[in-house]
Amino acid sequence: MLEGLIGGLFNGISIGAVLLIVALGLAIVFGLMGVINLAHGELMMFGAYTTFVVQNVAKSIGGIAPEVYIFAALPMAFLVSALLGLLLERTVIRYLYGRPLETLLATWGVSLILIQFIRSVSWPMLIGLAVFAALFLVGRWVLTRYTDWEQIKSWANPVFLGLSAAIAGLTLFLIESSGSDKFTRAWFSTRNVDVTPPSWLRGGINLGATLQFPFARLFIIVLTALCLAAVYWFLNGTAWGLRIRSVTQNRGMSACLGIPTERVDALTFALGSGLAGIAGCAVTLLGSVGPNLGANYIVDAFMVVVVGGVGKLVGSIVAALVIGITTYLLGSGTLVLMFPPTDFFKPMIDFFTFFATTSMAKVMVFALIIAFLQVRPAGLFPPKGRSVEL
Amino acid sequence: MSTKVLEIKDVTVSFDGFKAINNLNFSMDEGELRVIIGPNGAGKTTFLDVISGKTKPTEGAAYFKGQDLRKYKEHEISRLGIGRKFQTPRVYLNLTPRENLDLSCNRNKNVFPTLFKAPPPAEKRTVGGLLETIGLDHKADIPAALLSHGEKQWLEIGMLVAQSPDLLLVDEPVAGLTDEETEQTGKLLLSLAESHSIVVIEHDMEFVRQIARQVTVLHQGSVLFEGTMDQVQNDPKVIEVYLGKETSLTPEQMLLLRIAATMAWADDNFANVQQEVILDRLSRKFAHSPDDQASLRDDLKNLLAKEIPLEELVPQLATPAQKEEALMLSYEVISANQINQTEAVAYQKLLSLLDLPPATVSRLEAAALEELAARG
Amino acid sequence: MATDMAVQPRLAAKASQKRKLMIEVVAVIAIALVLIVIMPMLLSGFRLNLLGRFLALAIVALGIDLIWGFTGLLSLGHGIFFALGGYAFAMYLELNTLPDGQMPEFFSLYGVTELPLFWQPFNSFPFTLLAIFVIPAIVAGLLGYLVFRNRIRGVYFSILTQAALVVFFNLFNGQQKLINGTNGLKTSTSVFLGQEVGTPAMRMVFYITTVIALVAMYALCRWLTSGRFGRMLVAIRDDENRVRFSGYDPTAFKVLVFAVSGAIAGIAGALYTVQSGIISPQVMDIAFSIEMVIWVAVGGRATLVGAVLGAVLVNMARSLLSERFPDVWLFFQGALFLIVVTTLPDGIIGWGRRRFGPAISSALGLAPTDLPYLDDSAEAEAVVETPEFAEK
Question: Are A369 and A261 found together in one domain?
């Protein structure tokens, strides 16, 4: 009985830790900027694929590399996702501040593009993209330099876009038809790939007869705790954290005080995206990696944010743990075992047995969340004062 | 049994321990127009929130015509007959003024009547009339987003009236309006006051003076003072709150100061020497030790900025002694620099208002000149 | 004098409105006739079937437009209602095909010997006809009530509808014994009105029914969005608090409109199912429900014509592109989201009105039309500026 409880608790916490590390970036971006980023899952996926690439490089190096690659993969995943997030913020999201629903749709569009990108990325495609970017950007630069850009903007932009796209497309087609098969092959394709964890993360601590704490899950719990501490320190202990918090509270005033609000926005978004990358790296330990990886986590992560409220990080922590533990207890059927198998408890047992699968547990958890929101509509820790009205 | 349209009893509203409203008591009669003023953070808007149901009181209760408002939600309170206008104009930007008013005018606001019943002609006529009243009949069919700030303010007031409430809560109706629009708004509110009870929150003192009969001053979530505008302006506590500084002035001193200052302003030129005269005389008159005199001087200086019509000030002088004091000081002030045409006119007006015997007047004038000479 | 001045243009406006309505009615009937009479002559059976499916999707788009375009509530969960309508009809077809007392085949695979209770009523055709739109309406109404009554709005509402979608997907996907799980229910070989659903004749029947349903739903939405109720929806979108302080209960309006929108999606789901031949939990894919929103956005939100047009155009583009370049479709779709949101917020109809509106109006002898959807950035600003909390 006790073992079962501890085991259930551990598994619940480890599910919660995964949820939390995924939701952490979301909570920051949503809580501080009011932006719903539906591409968060795809940023995660990029983190996971980065880990996959780093692992392959480590394998080709050999020696001790395959054992420690994860420590290189974590910062790399953070970096890749953060840069991608930065690009996303600079090119799309900054034009949509104050329009959360539009942001939501736009980021969904981005997520579709990212998914297809991972599916079909190959050398020719990359070269095509580079050609396109070079032509378009250089062309525009030349024009802004030597002509009256404002006047010709209305027609020059689409013309240049079309022209560069056409040339890039042609290049892509030529390379693809002439290059060797190996060269033109998609890097990852649509199939899932597997990341092999370092050997020291396989196996686990055994306690008693049935209890096992897998190292991979312990690693994720520790990683989540470290990320939390780092984020807390960053927001509350550094100059940039102070700036982020001040922009959250009063953007206009912050701007008047000389805080570069645009840069703060970009930084906040990059931070949230980078955390998605780390989350992506972490979930490679749990299963295979595919283009649809993000979709599996994103909705649950959003539920964590909704239940936690956007006021404080601690809300996300509590929400993630509660949702994680509840999901596990329901999904594993642990609750069924709690009732003595008598006729009196039969309806209860039947009820919980019905929900004792992972997907059905989600149904029940959602019902509980809706019930919870009847009591606390703004979550555990609602934002106070004059924040963004949603 | 009671004719009070609104009664607030011992209401406290606290947000995480901070008391935005602290044990507030307030009541007003049917048909009254009440202006509420108070510095930023005094709890004015929260006060309206409590009445309109946006915020529930932590303690105490608000009663509208004897009904406890705590039991009702916002839309129910609105249906009881309380209309509210927000600080920034909040109208439906994608609807036209006519449609805006029509929605407010709807008598039965339940879902299905709204869906199935066409607006009756009577309501259409009301809307037409209101459009004229608020001066938007020529813009009745363009989206409200295209209206100016002032027109939106008016439209929102119109929407309130369309609800035909008994009590109007109006939050800063003239913020951001031009002088002319402000005056128009004042007239509008005054005409509405004939058939409604109105609570107005406002910062613009000119405007408050235009419309106010009875004023309530809020400070730190409680009522600081209640009275007419003049009483309010001369009340030391209120002045202290507004200027954020301790003052030792009595109402009597305030009044003298105001009359003297108004005389000095008569020619639109408040010369330094005039200011010196006023400060010097009053501080010596009302304080004894040099230290007290110095601090009083500072206080007085802060209060000199405002010009108020003599007709309002003079009747408040109670005793003949006060009248004499006022006359003498005024004469001294205008004589301090060259008396010119406008100052002379103002002085004549003061004389007629004071209505003192001619002998007394000339005695005081002579004394005043002596004082001046003594100052050098 | 002043009143005369005000009355004159109003009478003119009324006449113009009447004329507009007439033109609209004629146009709708004409388009419906073209779809019913001419299209079957021009298109192959396969293409006609595709068009029928797109028109069914256009019906959902109308529902989405009703709540998003007009009321400002972005639902990402309309797949639920679509599926409920589809499943309701498919269950009836399953039972109708079999002789009395027999059970659909898949039950035997999972060892179910007794028809589950909730299948029973679907033996009746009248019940099924009702269930197609009543069940989605009830589910939508209930979900809406639980969410709206707590003043959960904006993106929170969107996220919750999305989560509800995932939950319903899990529910249907996981219940093999009750509803055949992942495999869904096939309708193409079922029998309806004595004929197999998949036959050309039956397909034609469903196609025509879809066109008629589309016209009916268009008329319904048109009625809902004109008049006081329609203005109320826009008012809720513009400023819900103002609505509340004007004496209306926005929750009731939102619940009703969400339920109606769900019912419309249910009808669309039923019509889509019989034309595509299968209903499975796949229609509750997250992506499909968000796509519905983009149809409306492409066409032009808050314009009903835009919703229909957008649904048909995007789906045509989809079938063209994904047939030939399956890789490109997602890129294209992603770009579509970005372009519509950033540069074409009023969609095709809004853009067209701005560009050609005056010319068309004057050609038809009508008063100029207002822009359909004013940029809500001004509104967002107003919300942020409102210092209601300033004193707290």
Answer: yes
Residues of A (196-255) whose Cβ lies below 8 Å from C: none
- C215-238 pLDDT tens trace: 999 999 999 998 889 999 999 999
What is the reported pTM? 0.83
Which three-class secondary structure state does DSSP give residue B60?
strand
Gap between the Cα atoms of C363 and C356, Å rounded: 11
DSSP 3-state percent helix, strand, coil across chain A (nearest 5):
75, 5, 20
- Same domain as A299, residue A243: yes
The residue among A384 and A81 whose pLDDT is bigger is A81
Q: Are residues A114 and A126 in the same domain?
A: no
* HSE-up (13 A, CA, CB side) for residue A286: 20
Query: Among residues A168, A185, A202, which one ends one of the domains?
Result: A185
To test the contact with chain C by mutation, choose from B115, B133, B153 the residue with the greatest count of C C-beta atoms within 10 A, namely B115
Distance CA(C120)–CA(C104), nearest Å, equals 12
Q: Which residues of B touch C237 (CB under 8 A)?
A: 94
Contacts for C39-46 with beta carbons within 8 Å, 24 or more apart?
C40/C204, C40/C207, C45/C200, C45/C203
Q: Are residues A60 and A144 in the same domain?
A: no
**Co-location of A22 and A50 in the same domain:** yes
Same domain as A181, residue A75: no
Using a CB-CB cut-off of 8 Å, the residues of chain C touching A359 are: 170, 173-174
The answer to whether the CB of C38 falls within 8 A of the CB of C207 is no
Residue closest to B88 by CA, chosen among C231, C239, A254, C375:
C239
Number of domains chain A contains: 2
> Chain C closest CA to A187's CA: distance in Å?
14
**Residue A205: domain span:** 2-121+186-388
Q: What is the pLDDT of residue C381?
A: 36
Q: Are residues A20 and A141 in the same domain?
A: no
> For chain B, which residues score pLDDT lower than 50?
1
Same domain flag for A53 and A128:
no
- 3-state DSSP assignment of residue B5: strand
Counting as low any pLDDT under 50, the low residues of chain C are 1-6, 370-392
Q: At what angle do helices B236-243 and B290-303 cross, to 10 degrees?
A: 80
* CA separation, residue C146 to residues A327, B269, C143 (Å): 22, 67, 5
Domain boundary among A134, A153, A185: A185
